Amino acid sequence: MNKIVIMPCLDMKDGRVVKGINFLGLKDAGDPVESAAFYQAEGADELAMLDIAATLENRGTRLEWVKNVSSVIGIPLTVGGGISSLEDMELTFEAGASNVSVNSAAVKRPELIDEAAARFGSERITVAIDARRNKTMPSGFELVIAGGTMPAGIDAVEWARQCQERGAGVLLPTSMDGDGTLDGYDIDYTRAISGAVTLPVVASGGAGKLEHFFDAVTEGGASILLAASVFHYRLISIGQVKEYLRGRGIPVL
After folding, report:
1. Which of the following is catalytic: 51, 88, 130, 155?
2. What pLDDT, in 10s, does the model give residues 113-151?
């Protein structure tokens, strides 16, 4: 087993870190620069920053946020939200991101993944796959876009396979049903994605206890563990997660 990566996530809106439940009811969760520096000092392996309103507001990622955060950390930074072209990616990399995450734009024009992988390298391209349960889909999970506001009518697991074929380097599936609940990752969804591809898969949405991180690896097949609320509100520290996983035989960085 490869070493597991711990990745705090900064969901951004109006220049602040925010957090909601099931993508709704957003509350302020701190300053992004202070949070980024804190998480690096705590032992985070990577950091994610997602401009959650960019697509809904029909604009690109706020590059000044990327510059400010990247200036205080040395760990890899994955940036997503409103990235819809190769030019957007170029600018985001120039602002300090090491990886970009695409979502709605890739669903609308899948060739964007091929083009991005060819130009920047697969290892720098993450595809976020937001989904919710839908029994009419073959896998039971339907892709949703535009910050979770628009069902895409596409099976999420089939989309994950297509993303891998097109050259994505990492997949970041988030279950709308689990997001922000602290009730645990949606293991069924994480496992459905990880079982369909050979790429690194990020567990995202719902971590609230140490056991949840363990389950995401052992049952969900994730190799990157993303969490927000549990870290933002200091319910669990990154150090505690790593110590717990090591104690249960899971290798961590």
Report:
1. 130
2. 999 999 999 999 999 999 999 999 999 999 998 777 789
| Cα 83–Cα 77–Cα 89 angle in degrees, nearest 5 | 25
C-alpha closest to that of 136 among 120, 149, 152: 152
**d(C-alpha 131, C-alpha 117), whole Å:** 23
pTM: 0.92
CATH number assigned to the domain covering 5-243: 3.20.20.70
* DSSP-derived pairing of the beta strands 141-145 and 202-203: unpaired
**DSSP assignments along 168-186, one per residue:** -SEEEEEETTTTT-SS---
- Helical H segments across the chain, by residue range: 32-42, 63-70, 86-94, 104-108, 111-120, 156-166, 187-194, 210-218, 229-232, 238-247
Q: How far apart are CA 245 and CA 43, in angstroms?
A: 14
User: Is the pLDDT at 98 greater than 60, yes or no?
Assistant: yes
Q: Which helix (H) or strand (E) holds 8?
A: strand 5-13
| Catalytic site includes residue 11 | yes
Catalytic residue among 11, 45, 155, 215, which? 11
Tell me the Cα Rg of the chain. 16
Give yes or no: 130 in active site. yes
- Please, which residues bridge with residue 128 across strands? 172
